[in-house]
Amino acid sequence: MKKYLSLIIGILGIAALILFSDYRAVLRAMQEMQISYLLLGFCVFFFSLLLRGTRWNAITLDTKDTKALYFICFLGNAMNRILPSKLGGLVKAYLYAQREKKPLAEGFASVFLDNILELSFVLVSCVIIFLIWPFQMMIKNATLIAMGIFIIAVIAIVMSIFFLQSPWFMKISSKINKIRKLQEKYGTGFKDAFKKYFSSLKIKRIVIGYLLTLLVWCIVALANYLVLLGLGRSISFMMIYVVATLPVVLGIMSLLPGGYGVQEVSTVALLVAAGIPLEIATSFSLIMRAIDLVLVMITGYLGMCALSIKSWHHLEEKVA
Description:
By secondary structure, the chain is mostly helical. It has helices at about 5-20, 25-30, 35-60, 65-80, 90-100, 105-130, 140-165, 165-175, 175-185, 190-200, 205-230, 235-255, 260-275, 280-305, 310-320. It has one domain. Helix 2 (about 25-30) crosses helix 14 (about 280-305). The longest helix is centred in the middle third of the chain and has 29 residues, at about 105-130. It is globular. The two termini are about 15 Å apart. The model has no long low-confidence stretch (mean pLDDT about 80).
Protein backbone atom coordinates (compact mmCIF):
# COMPACT_ATOMS: atom_id res chain seq x y z
CA MET A 1 0.00 0.00 0.00
CA LYS A 2 2.83 2.40 0.85
CA LYS A 3 4.35 2.28 -2.62
CA TYR A 4 1.01 3.43 -4.11
CA LEU A 5 0.48 6.22 -1.58
CA SER A 6 2.08 8.89 -3.79
CA LEU A 7 -0.08 7.73 -6.72
CA ILE A 8 -3.22 8.05 -4.58
CA ILE A 9 -2.15 11.55 -3.45
CA GLY A 10 -1.76 12.64 -7.08
CA ILE A 11 -5.17 11.28 -8.07
CA LEU A 12 -6.76 13.03 -5.07
CA GLY A 13 -5.16 16.26 -6.30
CA ILE A 14 -6.89 15.85 -9.67
CA ALA A 15 -10.19 15.12 -7.91
CA ALA A 16 -9.80 18.29 -5.81
CA LEU A 17 -9.18 20.33 -8.98
CA ILE A 18 -12.44 19.05 -10.49
CA LEU A 19 -14.35 19.80 -7.27
CA PHE A 20 -13.07 23.39 -7.17
CA SER A 21 -14.20 23.86 -10.76
CA ASP A 22 -17.82 23.76 -11.91
CA TYR A 23 -17.80 20.07 -12.83
CA ARG A 24 -20.95 20.47 -14.91
CA ALA A 25 -19.27 23.15 -17.02
CA VAL A 26 -16.16 20.94 -17.28
CA LEU A 27 -18.23 18.03 -18.60
CA ARG A 28 -20.13 20.32 -20.95
CA ALA A 29 -16.88 21.65 -22.42
CA MET A 30 -15.69 18.08 -23.03
CA GLN A 31 -18.97 17.11 -24.68
CA GLU A 32 -18.88 20.15 -26.98
CA MET A 33 -15.26 19.60 -28.02
CA GLN A 34 -14.62 19.19 -31.75
CA ILE A 35 -13.54 15.56 -32.23
CA SER A 36 -11.42 16.35 -35.31
CA TYR A 37 -9.04 18.48 -33.21
CA LEU A 38 -8.93 15.80 -30.53
CA LEU A 39 -7.93 13.14 -33.06
CA LEU A 40 -5.31 15.44 -34.59
CA GLY A 41 -3.85 16.18 -31.16
CA PHE A 42 -3.83 12.44 -30.39
CA CYS A 43 -1.88 11.61 -33.56
CA VAL A 44 0.58 14.48 -33.13
CA PHE A 45 1.25 13.47 -29.50
CA PHE A 46 1.93 9.88 -30.61
CA PHE A 47 4.56 11.19 -33.03
CA SER A 48 6.33 12.88 -30.07
CA LEU A 49 6.65 9.46 -28.38
CA LEU A 50 8.32 8.06 -31.49
CA LEU A 51 10.73 11.01 -31.55
CA ARG A 52 11.69 10.38 -27.91
CA GLY A 53 12.67 6.86 -28.93
CA THR A 54 14.67 8.27 -31.83
CA ARG A 55 16.49 10.64 -29.48
CA TRP A 56 17.46 7.82 -27.13
CA ASN A 57 18.69 5.82 -30.11
CA ALA A 58 20.85 8.80 -31.11
CA ILE A 59 22.67 9.01 -27.77
CA THR A 60 23.28 5.30 -27.11
CA LEU A 61 26.64 3.87 -28.15
CA ASP A 62 26.98 1.08 -30.75
CA THR A 63 23.44 -0.27 -30.35
CA LYS A 64 22.79 -3.55 -32.14
CA ASP A 65 18.99 -3.68 -31.98
CA THR A 66 17.69 -0.15 -32.53
CA LYS A 67 14.11 -1.38 -33.00
CA ALA A 68 14.10 -2.86 -29.49
CA LEU A 69 15.16 0.51 -28.07
CA TYR A 70 11.85 2.03 -29.18
CA PHE A 71 9.91 -0.67 -27.32
CA ILE A 72 12.13 -0.26 -24.24
CA CYS A 73 11.51 3.50 -24.39
CA PHE A 74 7.74 2.92 -24.65
CA LEU A 75 7.80 0.60 -21.65
CA GLY A 76 9.94 3.03 -19.64
CA ASN A 77 7.45 5.82 -20.34
CA ALA A 78 4.60 3.63 -19.07
CA MET A 79 6.53 2.72 -15.91
CA ASN A 80 7.11 6.43 -15.23
CA ARG A 81 3.32 6.80 -14.97
CA ILE A 82 3.18 4.04 -12.36
CA LEU A 83 6.40 4.36 -10.35
CA PRO A 84 7.61 7.48 -8.49
CA SER A 85 10.91 9.35 -8.97
CA LYS A 86 11.20 8.55 -12.70
CA LEU A 87 12.05 4.90 -11.92
CA GLY A 88 10.94 4.10 -15.45
CA GLY A 89 14.39 5.35 -16.43
CA LEU A 90 15.98 2.54 -14.42
CA VAL A 91 13.69 0.07 -16.19
CA LYS A 92 14.98 1.38 -19.52
CA ALA A 93 18.59 1.10 -18.35
CA TYR A 94 18.08 -2.44 -17.04
CA LEU A 95 16.40 -3.70 -20.24
CA TYR A 96 18.95 -1.95 -22.46
CA ALA A 97 21.88 -3.53 -20.58
CA GLN A 98 20.18 -6.93 -20.64
CA ARG A 99 19.41 -6.97 -24.37
CA GLU A 100 22.62 -5.30 -25.56
CA LYS A 101 24.79 -7.25 -23.10
CA LYS A 102 26.37 -4.08 -21.79
CA PRO A 103 27.05 -2.72 -18.28
CA LEU A 104 24.02 -1.37 -16.46
CA ALA A 105 25.98 1.85 -15.91
CA GLU A 106 26.15 2.51 -19.66
CA GLY A 107 22.41 2.07 -20.02
CA PHE A 108 21.76 4.28 -17.02
CA ALA A 109 24.18 6.92 -18.33
CA SER A 110 22.30 7.14 -21.63
CA VAL A 111 18.98 7.45 -19.76
CA PHE A 112 20.52 10.07 -17.46
CA LEU A 113 21.70 12.08 -20.48
CA ASP A 114 18.27 11.70 -22.08
CA ASN A 115 16.70 13.27 -18.97
CA ILE A 116 19.31 16.04 -18.90
CA LEU A 117 18.57 16.94 -22.52
CA GLU A 118 14.84 17.09 -21.81
CA LEU A 119 14.85 18.96 -18.50
CA SER A 120 17.61 21.43 -19.32
CA PHE A 121 16.00 22.34 -22.63
CA VAL A 122 12.60 22.94 -21.05
CA LEU A 123 13.98 25.01 -18.18
CA VAL A 124 16.24 27.14 -20.38
CA SER A 125 13.53 27.70 -23.01
CA CYS A 126 10.87 28.63 -20.42
CA VAL A 127 13.24 31.08 -18.70
CA ILE A 128 14.04 32.73 -22.04
CA ILE A 129 10.35 32.98 -22.94
CA PHE A 130 9.55 34.63 -19.60
CA LEU A 131 12.47 37.05 -20.06
CA ILE A 132 11.39 38.16 -23.52
CA TRP A 133 7.66 38.07 -22.76
CA PRO A 134 7.40 41.81 -21.91
CA PHE A 135 8.79 42.67 -25.35
CA GLN A 136 6.47 40.42 -27.38
CA MET A 137 4.30 43.36 -28.51
CA MET A 138 7.37 45.04 -30.03
CA ILE A 139 8.16 42.15 -32.38
CA LYS A 140 6.11 39.93 -34.63
CA ASN A 141 5.35 36.57 -33.02
CA ALA A 142 7.02 34.53 -35.78
CA THR A 143 10.26 36.47 -35.41
CA LEU A 144 10.12 36.17 -31.63
CA ILE A 145 9.58 32.43 -31.71
CA ALA A 146 12.37 31.90 -34.26
CA MET A 147 14.77 34.05 -32.23
CA GLY A 148 13.86 32.25 -29.02
CA ILE A 149 14.38 28.79 -30.55
CA PHE A 150 17.75 29.86 -31.98
CA ILE A 151 18.96 31.25 -28.63
CA ILE A 152 17.72 28.16 -26.77
CA ALA A 153 19.51 25.80 -29.16
CA VAL A 154 22.81 27.71 -29.07
CA ILE A 155 22.90 28.12 -25.28
CA ALA A 156 21.85 24.54 -24.55
CA ILE A 157 24.29 22.94 -27.00
CA VAL A 158 27.29 25.06 -25.98
CA MET A 159 26.64 24.62 -22.23
CA SER A 160 26.10 20.86 -22.47
CA ILE A 161 29.18 20.22 -24.60
CA PHE A 162 31.50 21.88 -22.09
CA PHE A 163 29.68 20.62 -18.99
CA LEU A 164 29.18 16.95 -19.95
CA GLN A 165 32.84 16.56 -20.90
CA SER A 166 34.22 18.24 -17.80
CA PRO A 167 35.36 16.59 -14.53
CA TRP A 168 32.80 18.74 -12.71
CA PHE A 169 29.99 16.72 -14.29
CA MET A 170 31.18 13.45 -12.76
CA LYS A 171 31.61 15.08 -9.35
CA ILE A 172 28.12 16.57 -9.41
CA SER A 173 26.42 13.45 -10.82
CA SER A 174 28.02 11.24 -8.14
CA LYS A 175 26.23 13.33 -5.50
CA ILE A 176 22.78 12.51 -6.92
CA ASN A 177 21.03 10.09 -4.59
CA LYS A 178 19.93 7.59 -7.27
CA ILE A 179 23.40 7.40 -8.84
CA ARG A 180 25.10 7.14 -5.44
CA LYS A 181 22.89 4.19 -4.49
CA LEU A 182 23.70 2.40 -7.75
CA GLN A 183 27.42 2.99 -7.21
CA GLU A 184 27.14 1.50 -3.72
CA LYS A 185 25.20 -1.48 -5.08
CA TYR A 186 27.44 -2.29 -8.07
CA GLY A 187 30.79 -0.98 -6.80
CA THR A 188 33.51 0.94 -8.64
CA GLY A 189 32.68 -0.83 -11.92
CA PHE A 190 29.48 1.19 -12.18
CA LYS A 191 31.32 4.48 -11.72
CA ASP A 192 33.97 3.53 -14.28
CA ALA A 193 31.43 2.47 -16.92
CA PHE A 194 29.34 5.59 -16.24
CA LYS A 195 32.41 7.78 -16.73
CA LYS A 196 33.48 5.85 -19.84
CA TYR A 197 30.13 6.48 -21.52
CA PHE A 198 30.40 10.27 -21.20
CA SER A 199 34.07 10.34 -22.16
CA SER A 200 33.25 8.31 -25.31
CA LEU A 201 30.26 10.48 -26.19
CA LYS A 202 30.75 12.49 -29.37
CA ILE A 203 29.66 16.12 -29.56
CA LYS A 204 27.59 15.27 -32.65
CA ARG A 205 25.35 12.99 -30.57
CA ILE A 206 24.68 15.76 -28.03
CA VAL A 207 23.82 18.22 -30.81
CA ILE A 208 21.45 15.70 -32.46
CA GLY A 209 19.93 14.99 -29.05
CA TYR A 210 19.14 18.66 -28.46
CA LEU A 211 17.76 19.15 -31.97
CA LEU A 212 15.44 16.17 -31.47
CA THR A 213 14.43 17.56 -28.06
CA LEU A 214 13.52 20.84 -29.73
CA LEU A 215 11.39 18.94 -32.24
CA VAL A 216 9.77 16.78 -29.52
CA TRP A 217 8.61 19.75 -27.43
CA CYS A 218 7.42 21.76 -30.43
CA ILE A 219 5.30 18.77 -31.46
CA VAL A 220 3.97 18.34 -27.90
CA ALA A 221 3.11 22.06 -27.87
CA LEU A 222 1.33 21.63 -31.22
CA ALA A 223 -0.73 18.74 -29.79
CA ASN A 224 -1.70 20.96 -26.84
CA TYR A 225 -2.58 23.81 -29.20
CA LEU A 226 -4.85 21.56 -31.28
CA VAL A 227 -6.70 20.27 -28.21
CA LEU A 228 -7.22 23.82 -26.93
CA LEU A 229 -8.57 24.82 -30.36
CA GLY A 230 -10.97 21.90 -30.12
CA LEU A 231 -12.31 23.44 -26.91
CA GLY A 232 -12.95 26.69 -28.77
CA ARG A 233 -10.04 28.66 -27.28
CA SER A 234 -6.58 29.70 -28.40
CA ILE A 235 -3.53 31.45 -26.97
CA SER A 236 -0.15 32.37 -28.45
CA PHE A 237 2.13 29.49 -29.41
CA MET A 238 4.74 30.74 -26.93
CA MET A 239 2.27 30.48 -24.07
CA ILE A 240 1.02 27.05 -25.16
CA TYR A 241 4.67 25.94 -25.28
CA VAL A 242 5.07 26.95 -21.62
CA VAL A 243 1.78 25.22 -20.75
CA ALA A 244 2.95 22.03 -22.50
CA THR A 245 6.42 21.92 -20.96
CA LEU A 246 6.72 23.61 -17.57
CA PRO A 247 4.03 21.53 -15.78
CA VAL A 248 5.83 18.36 -16.91
CA VAL A 249 9.05 19.53 -15.20
CA LEU A 250 7.11 20.49 -12.06
CA GLY A 251 5.49 17.06 -12.08
CA ILE A 252 8.89 15.36 -12.28
CA MET A 253 10.24 17.50 -9.44
CA SER A 254 7.26 16.50 -7.26
CA LEU A 255 8.47 12.85 -7.46
CA LEU A 256 4.84 11.72 -7.83
CA PRO A 257 4.24 8.98 -10.45
CA GLY A 258 3.48 10.75 -13.73
CA GLY A 259 3.31 14.05 -11.84
CA TYR A 260 -0.38 13.35 -11.17
CA GLY A 261 -2.13 16.32 -9.61
CA VAL A 262 0.85 18.66 -9.75
CA GLN A 263 0.91 18.68 -13.54
CA GLU A 264 -2.83 19.28 -13.84
CA VAL A 265 -2.96 22.07 -11.24
CA SER A 266 0.03 23.90 -12.75
CA THR A 267 -1.44 23.54 -16.27
CA VAL A 268 -4.74 25.05 -15.12
CA ALA A 269 -2.94 27.87 -13.28
CA LEU A 270 -0.97 28.82 -16.40
CA LEU A 271 -4.03 28.72 -18.64
CA VAL A 272 -6.12 30.81 -16.23
CA ALA A 273 -3.25 33.32 -16.09
CA ALA A 274 -3.40 33.44 -19.90
CA GLY A 275 -7.11 34.33 -19.79
CA ILE A 276 -8.69 30.89 -20.28
CA PRO A 277 -11.78 30.24 -18.08
CA LEU A 278 -11.23 27.82 -15.19
CA GLU A 279 -13.69 25.21 -16.51
CA ILE A 280 -12.08 25.16 -19.98
CA ALA A 281 -8.60 24.99 -18.45
CA THR A 282 -9.65 22.06 -16.23
CA SER A 283 -11.22 20.25 -19.20
CA PHE A 284 -8.04 20.80 -21.20
CA SER A 285 -5.77 19.42 -18.46
CA LEU A 286 -7.94 16.31 -18.04
CA ILE A 287 -8.11 15.68 -21.80
CA MET A 288 -4.33 16.02 -22.18
CA ARG A 289 -3.82 13.65 -19.24
CA ALA A 290 -6.19 11.15 -20.88
CA ILE A 291 -4.36 11.39 -24.22
CA ASP A 292 -1.04 10.90 -22.46
CA LEU A 293 -2.23 7.90 -20.42
CA VAL A 294 -3.99 6.14 -23.29
CA LEU A 295 -1.04 6.49 -25.67
CA VAL A 296 1.66 5.74 -23.11
CA MET A 297 -0.12 2.68 -21.70
CA ILE A 298 -0.95 1.26 -25.14
CA THR A 299 2.60 1.72 -26.41
CA GLY A 300 3.94 0.42 -23.07
CA TYR A 301 1.85 -2.73 -23.44
CA LEU A 302 3.11 -3.16 -27.00
CA GLY A 303 6.63 -2.78 -25.62
CA MET A 304 6.00 -5.55 -23.07
CA CYS A 305 4.68 -7.86 -25.80
CA ALA A 306 7.55 -7.11 -28.18
CA LEU A 307 10.15 -7.66 -25.45
CA SER A 308 8.39 -10.82 -24.16
CA ILE A 309 7.87 -9.42 -20.66
CA LYS A 310 4.96 -11.04 -18.84
CA SER A 311 4.64 -8.69 -15.87
CA TRP A 312 5.85 -5.19 -14.93
CA HIS A 313 6.04 -6.29 -11.27
CA HIS A 314 9.19 -8.25 -12.13
CA LEU A 315 10.81 -5.09 -13.53
CA GLU A 316 9.75 -3.07 -10.50
CA GLU A 317 11.50 -5.53 -8.19
CA LYS A 318 14.68 -5.33 -10.27
CA VAL A 319 15.00 -1.54 -10.10
CA ALA A 320 13.50 -0.81 -6.67
